[in-house]
Automatic annotation (TrEMBL):
Entries under PANTHER family matching the protein: METHYLTRANSFERASE
Protein function: Specifically methylates the guanine in position 966 of 16S rRNA in the assembled 30S particle.
Protein name: Ribosomal RNA small subunit methyltransferase D
Entry GO MF terms: 16S rRNA (guanine(966)-N(2))-methyltransferase activity
Coiled-coil residues: none
Originating gene: rsmD
Domain of life: Bacteria
Keywords recorded for this protein, A-Z: Methyltransferase, rRNA processing, S-adenosyl-L-methionine, Transferase
Keyword Membrane: no
Organism field: Bacterioplanoides pacificum
Recorded catalytic activity of this chain's protein: guanosine(966) in 16S rRNA + S-adenosyl-L-methionine = N(2)-methylguanosine(966) in 16S rRNA + S-adenosyl-L-homocysteine + H(+)
Highest classification ranks of the organism: Bacteria, Pseudomonadati, Pseudomonadota, Gammaproteobacteria, Oceanospirillales
Length: 183
């Protein structure tokens, strides 16, 4: 990462890398999932992460994917379009010596369209205000039992597939975060 790019840090909350801090670039619109939200989400997922094949679409800082890796995910694919963020994700994977993850530096929607194989857990937390959540939901091809986490603006009402059963959700003034199981 170039010295001219300001960086911020996130903290891994649980698992083998608990309390490790990772850098991410200070990019307009990049907002890592808050610690308290990640803690709630991974409490929801406590029995579902170990051994899972995970996609962290619109990865940004990679907070969700790194948390999944730390907690025993079998594989994580980070999808990130912004070149500096993708580069930092790769550097963080090297720092952690995580060989069971890869970064796809490109458009998440394109990747989802071209890679329809099923995953166990998908994180969809696109940049707010860009109308990316609905197309991402429509691109997913998941088997029964798969879990999907979505985070979106509180005012947004995405159209969800009929076979997505909401397991958990929380809403703040600004955003909603929800966990679904494919049935």
């Amino acid at each position: 990462m170039s010295k001219s790019t300001p960086t911020q840090q996130l903290r891994i909350i649980g698992g083998q890398w608990r309390s490790r801090r990772l850098r991410f670039p200070a990019i307009d619109g990049l907002r890592p999932t808050l610690d308290r939200v990640r803690e709630t989400v991974f409490n929801w997922l406590q029995f579902d992460v170990e051994g899972a094949r995970v996609v962290d679409a619109f990865a940004g800082s990679g907070a969700l994917g790194f948390e999944a890796l730390s907690r025993g995910a079998k594989q994580v694919i980070f999808l990130e379009k912004h070149a500096k963020a993708a580069l930092q994700l790769k550097e963080n994977l090297q720092t952690l010596q995580a060989s069971n993850a890869q970064v796809w530096a490109g458009d998440a929607l394109t990747w989802l369209e071209q890679n329809p194989e099923p995953y166990d857990l998908v994180f969809l937390d696109p940049p707010f205000g860009k109308n990316l959540l609905q197309p991402a939901i429509e691109q997913l091809r998941l088997l029964p039992g798969a879990l999907v986490y979505i985070e979106h603006e509180a005012t947004l009402q995405p159209q969800l597939p009929a076979n997505w059963n909401e397991k958990k959700s929380k809403t703040t003034k600004e955003f909603c975060f929800r966990l679904f199981e494919v049935v």
